[in-house]
Amino acid sequence: MILEALAAAAKEAGALWIHSGVLFLMPSSAKQFLPFLRDKFPRLVRQYESWYTRNAYAPEPYRQKIAARLNRIKTNLGLTLRPWENSVIQFCRLRNSRWLCRPCGGLRHDHFILKPARGD
């Protein structure tokens, strides 16, 4: 299964947790996405058009089914811990409102440090 293999590869690469969600497709994005779908994945067009013609969300039963599947995968692989639930996150903020890490000297705007809350 593709999702299982993707999650396993993420764990093997060092991931501690994963997040997932079903496609949210606003009309402006649908104008680009649906032609792509027709071209590359024609077997999915009817389903996606029925789901996203009147709403930006997939049907609730489908979202629940996918969430349950991903929860099983995450539990089986031990990918349920979210870093901020068991860590202290240190940020510093510069004048330009970008978040920067003190140890890196502000060289990367997306950098942050996680330290275990237990003192490990």
Secondary structure: helix percent: 40-55%
- Secondary structure: number of strands: 4
Distance between the termini: 36 Å
Task: Output the radius of gyration.
Answer: 20 Å
Order of helices and strands: HHHHEEEE
Poorly predicted runs: 86-120
Strand content: 5-15%
**Sequence of strands across the biggest β-sheet:** 1-4
* Average pLDDT, all residues: 76
Q: Class by helix and strand content? A: mainly alpha
* Largest sheet: number of strands, sense, barrel closure: 2 strands, antiparallel
In terms of quaternary structure, the protein is single chain
How many domains comprise the coordinates? 2
Specify the number of helices: 4
User: Looking at the structure, what is the overall shape?
Assistant: elongated
Describe this structure in words.
With 120 residues, the chain is mostly helical. The chain has two domains: 2-82, no CATH class; 84-116, no CATH class. It is 42% helix and 10% strand. It has helices at 2-12, 27-40, 45-52, 60-77, and strands at residues 87-90, 92-93, 99-100, 113-116. The strands form two sheets. A two-stranded antiparallel sheet has the order 1-4. Strands 2-3 form a two-stranded antiparallel sheet. A hairpin with a 5-residue loop joins strand 2 (92-93) and strand 3 (99-100).
